[in-house]
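Hey, resending since the last one bounced:
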Amino acid sequence: MRNARLFIMLAVAVTLGGGWYVFSHRDTGNGSQTTEKTARPVVTHTVVPRAMPVRITAVGNVQSPSVVAVRPRVEGEIIKVHIVEGQEVNEGAPLFTLDFRSAEASRKQAEASLARDRAQLDRARRDLDRYTTLLKSGSATRQKVEQLTSDVGVYQAAIKADLAAIDNAKLALDYAFIKAPVAGRIGVIDGKLGALAKPGDAQPLVTITQLRPVTVAFAVPENHLGRIRAAMAAGPVEVAVTAGADPSSRSVGRLTFMDSAIDIATATITLKATFANDDTRLWPGQYVNVTLVLGTEADALSVPSEAVQTGQNGQYVFVVDAASKVRLVPVTVDREVDGQTVVKSGVSPGDKVVIEGQMRLAPGVEVVEKSRTAS
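The structure tokens again:
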């Protein structure tokens, strides 16, 4: 029994000793393996100054400089419609013809009244000349001369009224032929053949939308204001737009308007760019992606956009120090260009910022740099 007890104790001692040897041999003989298991693998990017274009992106809305609701200026029946829906017309092109017979009759009546009053004026002037001569010889009374003088004035005033009536009739006659006030595209035609058109109608006969040129309105953050003003003072500022549905369709115009005040609710300022739109690629009401080109910044500090994180206190990046530990660094972002974020403050040339693996990081965590996995 005593020998059996000694045998069991010896077996336990051997087992414990072997386990201690294996554990101590793994910790001391292969320390780098332990470090690799506790350190977080990350992919980093070294910050270096480089030339970066100064471009500001926004979402804009295409606007027509002129949308005209065509209404009649005189009352009349529509006797002819010269257009079809969707047609493009030039300025001055005929749109509708109203019944002009009443205006024509008014013009002829005014012209007849003018002829009558001119004949009466001629007769009154001849009578005045004759009675003025008779007055000098004592064969006529002064009262008669004064009466004829008054008649001449009355007929002169009547002639002026006739001329005004003729002008008014001609204007009404001209209004019966409704023409396009601007060049553009015809919308829905509500003025139908045979309908009675009135100046007080709420519904316009048709709406014309100007397509050449067009403007694009968009808003940018107020921190770009100084840079935009400087660029406008230096010369024309290029603006490029692309449609969301077709990024390959690119139109180029120039910045033509800056609002007089910043919107305090959104901290943005409204801008407008003008485009010739000769190919009518831009359509009023369309939303487009806007790129405002302001030049090139020679020594900009930029990081891949995936390096910039957003927290409760703003935007930040993780920077790896010489001891392979990360620290959280707040940054001030200026703009984003082609997947690169230009940083105004927070990082310095030579800093290593983490671009992959941020989800498992916290300040002070030790990391090990890995190569980026090909996607």
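The chain has three domains: 49-64+211-369, 70-98+178-208, 100-175.

Sorry for the duplicate.
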